[in-house]
Amino acid sequence: MAARAPRRVFVGSLPCAKGPVPVKLTVEDWNFLEYPRISLVERPAFLPALMPHVDVLGHLCYFAPGAVTLDRYDPATAVAQCLDQATVMLDRIVANPEYRIDDIQSEFPAHWEYGQLSLPWTVFLGDIQPQATTAKYFIMRKGERKHALVSCDPDEAHRLARSLGAAVTASRYRCWLFQTAVPPRVPAQMPRTVKELFVWVRSWDCTLYAGIQKALGEKDYLQQTYAAFAVKTPVGWIGFGFDLDQIRRLGYANSPKRYRNYLHNAGGVQHLFRMALREAGSRFVHSRNLSYQDLYNKRVTVVGCGAIGSFVAAALVRLGGGTGKLGRLKLIDPDDLGPENLGRHVLGYPALMQTKAGALRDELLRQFPHSAIEAHACSVFDHAQLFAAELIVDATGEESVSEYLNGLRLQRGTLTPLLHVWIRGNGEFVQALWADAEGGACYRCLLVPDASYHRKERFPLLKTDPLQRTDGCRAYTPYAVSAPMQAAALAADMVCGWLQGDPSPRFRTRSQENADVYRVKNQNLTRMDGCPACARP
Ligand SMILES: [Zn+2]
User: Fold this and answer.
1) Most buried of 36, 269, 354, 365 (most Cβ within 10 A)?
2) At what angle do helices 307-318 and 482-499 cross, to 10 degrees?
3) pTM for the complete prediction?
4) Maximum distance among all alpha carbons in the chain?
5) How distant, in Å, are the alpha carbons of 129, 313, 456 from that of 163?
6) From the CA of 491, how far away is ligand 1's center (Å)?
7) CA of 160: how far to CAs of 265, 278, 330, 366, 373, in Å?
């Protein structure tokens, strides 16, 4: 690639409707992986003090990152596009106050943090119980780095710290918690003092204002040198705090209402810190990317922790498996992880010669410390509580075990759905069947009962026999790591369908693009006549 031009700075004005707006245009990246920077050189009087898409340094955010691909082969047009977009955006801010307010409101926490003398220290928020009124501050230290965590649960703090490889200490500080269903009111300027905070909160939500005043009328907060508050709003959490006057706080230790009075008067000039709160609890982490409920409070069992099961478990834990008071992710597999497994398993060398179930549990817990994960290094045949779950995933990929589980499900008449997922051939395709008490096909319904054939397939797929290998006295089917990843993705998609109310189509097939196989329709299967497993006598 030819060397690109160096950084260039241009100064000029944007031709906005109300008048010219002086800006500086900086192009550092002529590949346009980053948009050219446009910053305000001065702020004409017709621009409001608090603007959406303008940060504290006056940089304009005129395109959302990744929203537009600028043409690296036509830089003049690319730069003109940016200037046009910035002009349109500023005109819209000036012309339409509703647009400005809606845009600031929807990203209020981001605006909240900026425009302070010093950048705020990030404070992580754990899983905050809805009814909690205060939470504790914990400090997690790793080397030079220090993170604050606000959590209701010391156990959560310890689990998170262990995941981070950090040391954790509980501080004496508490943070007062509130919630409101009213989106934050957009002020002309963000509050900088305690008095400005009071005025703003009162104009936003009277109940919230009353709650904060009540807390300031009780003596607990006067035991701290700093008062901290976090408010859950419909657009996210916002936090703030202020230092307390050391002499007065001790003097008024038993008459907190006098301290509150002081805050409404001379003490109101106290500088307000607007905190940068980042949700880090499991409720946020697992639901952020979904438009439906995650696996919170569900008991899910994965049978088989080999190639398929390890990727299935890794997907399920990301979908919230094992979170919530009732949630459990149970992993069942009797085998140890050998060198022959490593090439297509989610675990690597650190897990060698450990039980697959135990090592997988340890790794998933290290990654997702909120989850409750159990390992059972035993055969599924010995597991008494198998159906005490909301979902069972059969990821063994072994027909005999799948048939056994299918038989057991039918015999017990359980309502717990059983999701079978497997790989066929040398990874040419992956298949899954969702079987439950709704009356569709069972696992054995995939074979046609025919006395003249041994295990005649209902849906033939492979045109040629798969390649088999043996190492020692064990036969195995070679396939690449992509196959169990595909199988896990298929299973995860069906679990997501179930979470949205319907796992259909309940029988799904995905094939590799260049595989020479027969096609099978994705469908809800009916039972097979004469199926020895599910046919009623
Ligand atoms: Zn059947």
Assistant:
1) 36
2) 40
3) 0.86
4) 96
5) 22, 18, 49
6) 20
7) 41, 14, 21, 9, 15
Calculate the CA 524 to chain-centre distance: 31
Q: What spacing in Å lies between the alpha carbon of 509 and ligand 1's midpoint?
A: 18
- Report the distance separating Cα 438 and Cα 502, nearest Å: 11
- Ligand 1 centroid to Cα of residue 502, in Å, is 21
pLDDT at position 536: 66
CA of residue 530 to ligand 1 center, whole Å: 8
Between the CA of 529 and the centroid of ligand 1 the distance, in Å, is 8
Query: For the CA atoms of 498, 500, 503, 509, what is the dihedral angle to 10 degrees?
Result: -110
Query: How far is it, in rounded angstroms, from Cα 416 to Cα 397?
Result: 20
User: What is the 503 CA–ligand 1 centroid distance (Å)?
Assistant: 18
Q: Give me ligand 1 centre to Cα 425, in Å.
A: 23
| Ligand 1 centroid to residue 421 C-alpha, Å | 16
Residues of the chain short of pLDDT 70, as ranges, are 1-4, 56, 536-537
Distance 164 CA to ligand 1 centre (A): 48
Q: What is the pLDDT of residue 4?
A: 62
Tell me how far the alpha carbon of residue 522 lies from the centroid of ligand 1, in angstroms.
Answer: 18
DSSP secondary-structure letter at 47? S
- Confidence (pLDDT) at 537: 58
Q: What pLDDT score does 63 carry?
A: 81
At 232, list the tokens.
């859950």
If you write DSSP's letter for every residue of 327-368 in order, what string do you get?
A: -EEEEE--PBP-GGGGGGSS--GGGTTSBHHHHHHHHHHHH-
- Return the structure tokens found at 188: 């002309």
Residue written as token pair 């508050």: 229
The pLDDT value recorded for residue 154 is: 94
pLDDT of residue 454: 84
Report the length, in residues, of the chain.
537
Residue 51 token pair = 């603007």
Cα–ligand 1 centroid distance for 408 (angstroms): 12
234 phi and psi angles, rounded to 5 deg: -65, -15
